Fold this protein.
Amino acid sequence: MNSVSKIRLGIIGGGQLGKMLILASRNLGFYEITILDPDPDCPASKIADHHIVERWDSEKGIIELSKMSDIITYEVEHTNVDVLKSLERKGKIVRPSAGVLEIINNKLLQKRFLLENKLPTAGLIKVNPKAEDFRDLKLPVVQKTCRGGYDGRGVLIIKDKEDIEKIFPVDSFLEEKVSIKKELAILVARSTRGEIKVYPLVEMYFNEKNICDMVIAPARVPLSIHRKSEKLAIECIKKLDGVGLFAIEMFLTKDNEVLINEISPRVHNSGHYTIEASKTSQFEQHLRAISGLPLGSTELLIPAVMVNLLGEPGFEGEPVIEGLEKALSVDGLKFHFYSKPKTFPFRKMGHFTVLDKSLKGAISKALKIKKVLKIKSQEARQGWQTGESH
Ligand SMILES: Nc1ncnc2c1ncn2[C@@H]1O[C@H](COP(=O)(O)OP(=O)(O)O)[C@@H](O)[C@H]1O
Ligand SMILES: [Mg+2]
């Protein structure tokens, strides 16, 4: 594309990922953005040009969005593939395509895609297991629901008889339990022209609720593991025929094997560090990839550690940022708040990234600030243990 006037972009979802995508589009300056999100106060609402207040999977909402957009993309996966497919048939552009989303939206289809393409992943043991199937099974195994899972919901590690009683009574499958040494993630982008760029491999850490807590860039693993993961990420996006920015979660096993765990066809929490630490952020890269533009350099300029700021357990209500002064006094700390009007336990409220010439330095600064920077509220919440986590 040699000349560009205005690109009307529709984004399904208006959370923090949507907000950061819009911020990147503002620098480029030639986007008009419409979001589709049921929450009138969602993070992206204040900076989008237009906001359709409807559910992410609403047929009416998606059709309205398509009328206002040259290109449709998404920052959530729980939308309506059938409606997107029918829009594609009418010539509307959806990137990544509805077909790709259909595979990824169903963890069983995703698993089969990986197995059929000989991409390394934990073995599939049984589809729709029933209690009696466990009689002949060697434990542990992992049950995953086909749909609706995120942040560890819909994943059950079955270690003993008691766990068997907890299995989810919905469409699901069992896979081998992996002995994980490290959880890793890698971003890869592919443009409409077929150009591919991969970011450095990073380490991901999760809290007790299985929500991403911290990301370390680059991953502290041997060079051979970096190269292997990059090759796998490239193969994966090519085989999917994906267009856009994808995040691929991987496991480094105790035997130093790299296995693909799951694919996200969108900008991702593991890539927030790229805003400050990379030559091109994941958000700008996604825009370039889906808009027919050349991809930017993925070079890491400086080591970085990203920490998610989750709503502090025990608090619910208008957020109060505790420890901000201390945090902002740290050399190389970049603070991001998503402006959600309400905090609740484990809600993703913001993040910070620490940049430092040495990765060790970045980690130690990040851990120090993680202890003092808290998102609370004026009033304590009763019964917070049952809190949601999105
Ligand atoms: N096969 C497995 N073996 C061991 N642990 C696993 C396996 N699959 C998932 N897990 C653990 O469960 C977490 C959530 O699983 P994942 O498939 O990534 O689901 P989600 O969609 O919730 O992110 C992973 O980050 C990992 O810690
Ligand atoms: Mg995951």
Remarks:
- The longest strand covers residues 180-190.
- The chain has three domains: 7-94, 123-176, 180-386.
